[in-house]
Amino acid sequence: MSTTLAKKETVTRKWYVLDAAGKPLGRTAAQAAVLLRGKHKTDYTPNVDCGDFVIIVNAAEAVLTGNKLQDKYYRRHSGWIGGLKEVQYKKLMDERPEFAMELAVKGMMAKNDLGRKAIKRLHVYKGAEHKHAAQKPEAWTQE
Fold first, then answer.
1. With 90 as the cut, is the pLDDT of residue 4 above it?
2. CA angle, 88 as apex, 84 and 92 as ends, to 5°?
3. Does the structure show a pLDDT above 90 at 9?
4. Ramachandran region of residue 66, left (φ > 0), alpha (ψ -120 to 50) or beta?
5. Residues facing 16 on adjacent strands
């Protein structure tokens, strides 16, 4: 029995559209991470970047379950004393839902060169329109 390993020269990339309307933020992000990494393909190879392009639309309509809108915070630190900045997810989802979705997907990607390269193939939009019609993206329906 032989194992088929993908080579970066033979990788074909497709474009997929994920609709986040009414779906949990984390579930949509997890599905996007799988598509970006290429784990849905039969010729997935861990050391080769064989993922696809992902467009997430309706990011503003993604939902957070439980009390996460009030209890969850996005935190960053400047490195200086007292430099902690906090933003409640309710405010983040109102003002920058694209950033919240990108943050969720980025947290699920590999923390290496392959993950950093794959996250560049993610495109997130607040509404239902996107500017990638020329690439003929397919709607991803599997959950």
1. no
2. 105
3. no
4. left
5. 54, 138
6 with 50: CB under 8 angstroms? Answer: yes
Rounded to 5 degrees, φ, ψ at 122 are: -95, 130
Model confidence band, residue 128 (pLDDT cutoffs 50, 70, 90) = very high
- Beta strands, E only, the chain: 15-19, 53-57, 73-77, 84-88, 122-124, 138-139
**Residue in the block written with tokens 């960053």:** 76
Q: Helices in the chain by DSSP H: which ranges?
A: 25-37, 68-71, 89-95, 97-108, 113-118
Mean pLDDT of 92-107: 97
Domain ranges of the chain: 15-64+95-139
Distance CA 133, CA 130 (A): 7
Fold exhibited by the domain 15-64+95-139: Ribosomal Protein L13p; Chain: A; (3.90.1180)
With left for phi above 0 and alpha for psi between -120 and 50, is residue 38 left, alpha or beta? Answer: left
How many C-alpha atoms does 51 have within 13 Å on its Cβ side?
Answer: 24
